[in-house]
Amino acid sequence: MLKVDKITKYYGDFKAVDNLSFTVKPGEIFGLLGVNGAGKTTTFRMIMGLLEPSSGKITLNGNKIDYSVTDQIGFLTEERSLLTKLTVKEQCLFYGTLKGMSDKDILSKLDNLLDRFGIMEYKDKKIKELSKGNQQKIQFITAIINDPKLLILDEPFSGLDPINIELFKQVILEMASKGSMIIFSSHQMNHVELFCKKIVVLLRGKPVIDGYISDIKEQYRKKNILIKGDVDKKFLEKIDGVYEVVEKSDEFEVKIESNDIVSNVFKEISKKSNITKFVVEEPSLNEIFVAKVGESYEK
Ligand code: ATP
Predict the structure, then answer these.
(1) Any atom of ligand 1 within 6 Å of the Cβ of 13
(2) Which residue range is the domain that position 59 belongs to?
């Protein structure tokens, strides 16, 4: 288990990370969220042992993370750090060797992953000749070539198209199902909601939301009902327990205080004819963020 225990990091007088704690167990995918400058990369650097926390402790299976466990860790950094003059094969041999793998294992894993990502033809091409998206695939392949027990992915989806995001997602899910601990950062909440069960949202270094997404949504209690049909905004606003009605292009989003209100809204709505949609939805993480910190996450 990875345990991040009350870590704080100062750069001079500036507090970049403020009393952050979380754990990631084998098989879990953990999302570290925050807008630019929130402290995500600083946190990753501390986990990797590249930066010392000003206070607090980070352990992997009870031990401090240092060079003795690098072969169990994979790290995709935010700034792309490929050796661009090398070929894809040379790059992977270089990193795989650093992780203590034999050439034979590296090359067989590489073939497998290049095939998976549909880029086998680039194996002997220089990295600098590849497109940005393909360079990112190579960087991802390098990070997972050793089947790391702990995989850290700093903004893995930035610059990827939806098809490639899906491809990355499949590989990440597969690694989790085989027992890897996976942490990834993103400034986009929708990416995290796609496949993380557990998250921390940082705001200027401070955790403002944390825990299992299901618990976070459960505790928030509020729900949204999407309604389409023969109703107007004023009618919906008058129903007991409704605190806001948002008019969307062809439907209303009716915000209610708790699940208990659903039947009442349904009863009132049933008095109207021609209702073509009535769907109860969980609030988005963004909505919860706005409610908790009083400002929008995605400005
Ligand atoms: P982004 O999404 O933009 O990558 P981030 O969440 O990864 O942001 P960090 O890079 O961890 O954020 O930075 C957190 C804060 O610490 C920022 O305000 C940044 O300016 C500051 N910071 C980062 N590195 C240093 C440094 N070496 N010296 C001083 N301040 C720093």
Answers:
(1) no
(2) 2-217
The reply to whether 98 and 225 lie within a common domain is no
Tell whether the model's pLDDT for residue 293 goes beyond 80. no
Atom 3, ligand 1: which residue's CA is nearest? 36
Band of residue 299 on the pLDDT scale cut at 50, 70, 90:
low
Same-domain check for residues 130 and 192: yes
Is 62 among the domain residues? yes
Per-residue pLDDT averaged across 241-255, rounded?
A: 92
pLDDT digits (tens, 9 = 90+) for 147-160: 999 999 998 988 78
Pick the residue whose CA is nearest to atom 16 on ligand 1.
16
> How many Å lie between the centroid of ligand 1 and the Cα of residue 118?
34
Q: Please, which pLDDT band fits residue 66 given cuts at 50, 70 and 90? A: confident
Domain-ending residue, one of 169, 186, 217:
217
Summarize pLDDT for 123-145 with one digit per residue, the tens: 999 998 988 889 999 999 999 99
d(CA 51, CA 45): 6
Q: Is there a domain that residue 187 lies in? A: yes
pTM listed for this prediction? 0.84
Is residue 17 lining ligand 1, measured as CB closer than 6 Å?
no
